[in-house]
Amino acid sequence: MKTEILSCVKVEKKRGEEIRRALKELKLLRTDARITSNDNFIYLPLTRELKEDEKGELEVDEIPTREFKVLEQRRDIEDLIGFKPSYEIVGDIAVLTEITAGNEQLAAHALMNLHKNIKVVAKRISPVEGVFRKRKVEIIAGENRTETMHKENGCRYKLDLEKVYFNPRLASERNRVVSQIECSERGEIIDMFAGVGSFSIQIAKRAPQSHIDAIDINPIAIQYLRENIKLNGVRNVEAIEGDIREIYVKFRNKAVRIIMNLPKSAYLFLSEALCMLNSQGGIIHFYDVESSYVNAGKRKSPETAIARAKEKLMTKINEACEREGFHLQSLDILDARKVKPYAPYAYIIGIDAVIKCTG
Ligand SMILES: C[S@@+](CC[C@H](N)C(=O)[O-])C[C@H]1O[C@@H](n2cnc3c(N)ncnc32)[C@H](O)[C@@H]1O
After folding, report:
1. In the chain, pLDDT over 70 holds for what percent of residues?
2. I need a surface site. Which of 11, 214, 243, 257 has the fewest CB within 10 A?
3. 185-238 per-position pLDDT tens digit
4. Residue 132: CB within 6 Å of ligand 1?
5. Domain positions in the chain
6. Is domain 2-70 given the CATH code 3.40.50.300 in the classification?
């Protein structure tokens, strides 16, 4: 760590906090320099010399100079290479998601320089696509592999980012859903599109008395899910490989809670979800993608996307009930929020709803 000689306020320890706050408020405190002290005094590094009236106001008279340790500014990728590519980090792999052709090597080496734990840099070469919601990547630098171990909210997920879906940008959304669940929650929770278990395992840890059926159609996602169940030492998750449309009847009337993380298509599976929900009532955590265009595309508003998603969900639930002959007793939206941008004028919207229907 480097040091600098700086002017500072020398003040008795008992007044230290009061003066530190006042200096910070006046933007006179050097926040990148480490405050020092001895038995009686505290030394607060300054951004500039104090004027006489400032000294009077703060009731300080000693402005000595002193050597301070100064924190080095964390460099970001733009400082190193002059542009800022979009990327995400999954375990020890950085995935460039938007980069001008020809700049890949430069960005890759800068990323490995900045993040010492990164062992692979890849570039996304296809969107997330197909039933398994996979994407293709090309290795740009580092080791030649796409398998990694990602840590999130106290859980570990082994996954191959070309063979399964995984999005590290959903970490806070997963945390938000998990923290709604009481630690004492019991009963059946169904994760209809579980992937490698990113929701299921966090829920299982949070509510050990619940039982989670984690379903996915992608056999490789299920293989990783089984490994992740062991890795995280959870006993209350069952990994089930299959198409939810073919197996949902096994779970008729069972679930107190259902996770439906298949944005864009989740509403196509509402009949199955309603059939699986407990007739005493249950909660669905539903994800959709909605456009945020307003005024024929002149303005974008997340609120518009949220309102559209809520309205669409209510319409689709009513349609599903009519189609299946269910009686919808109540439908309450607990929360609807923007989860993350999906495209320039569209967002992923998360909706939590309590539904009671019998059929
Ligand atoms: C957007 S991913 C979500 C994965 C996981 N919930 C997460 O947040 O990481 C959707 C998952 O649904 C699975 N899927 C798609 N259609 C399905 C179906 N009909 N039945 C079961 N799983 C399906 C895909 O294989 C994919 O893993």
Report:
1. 98
2. 243
3. 999 999 999 999 999 999 999 999 999 999 999 999 999 999 999 999 999 999
4. yes
5. 2-70, 77-145, 163-358
6. no
